[in-house]
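Obj: model holo form, ligand = adenosine-2'-5'-diphosphate.
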Amino acid sequence: MQKSEPKSLASTYTLSNGIEIPCVGFGTWQTPDGDVAYNSVLSALKCGYRHIDTATAYGNEESVGRAINDFLKTGEVKRSELFIATKLHNRDHGYEAAKAAIEKSLSALGLEYLDLYLIHWPNPLAFRANWAEANAGAWKAMEEAYRAGKIRAIGLSNFFERHIEKLLESAVVAPMVNQIKICPGIAQTELVKYCKAHAIAVEGYSPLGTGGTFRSEVLKDLSEKYGRPISQICVRWSMQQGAIPLPKSVNAERIAQNAQVFDFSLSEEDCKAIAEIDFAALGITAQRNPDEATF
Ligand code: A2P
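Output (holo structure tokens):
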């Protein structure tokens, strides 16, 4: 991932296949389908987000897609200026199921192509006995869709090093992205280092600790020090860790607030203090071990 300093939500990094990815994405996990998803995605696009992240498992692809298409109709941006990502559902691993799932997501979103498609989870419960084979099959379907121009970049989510290594044994096209949990206290330094070494861009979900960060005294102090709300400290920190943060909100003012992160930076010392925050004490859960999750 290219390292130039991002200046706005439209600033991009370059993925290993040359595709540009906007430096901050808008997260939609836990955003209810219907008007809430529609209105929040529309708010995000109106205030300058150009990268929208959803997943089949979030159950909101149709509303997200409706907002994207309605925004495109205003003529304010071209489709090529947007970056839309979704993810393979845990039930759809394996070649045939993944092939059909890609088509279903395209149709639910109402798009002719996706900018990024990720395997959401490396080791779903339903495929625990043959997870590596199921990923290899799904990946083959993703490579075909990539070559056919239906997907501009392909990647992974929640993959640890061992899952990536296994996938690389049979992959023809190398993954361009790994989306993992990165938030104060959860820096995943080793995994980030591994991804960088393999030219895999890192996206960070739950940059606000799904709301838990607002209880942190460390972050309250830093918020005062920098004269910035905690949300901006968190998003900025994620960027300075080398990640593409995906803040989520359903509130138009917060959506706009969370994106004001381009006119300040955190000192190295403060970044370190944020990395060391006791996330569990704030009620924030670590990224689940993919091999033990009960879904
Ligand atoms: P809401 O959607 O009601 O705004 P994460 O991005 O880590 O998943 O965190 C999302 C959580 O943080 C949601 O509960 C969201 O609530 C809340 N949130 C998002 N932005 C802000 C903000 N600027 N101030 C306070 N809470 C926020």
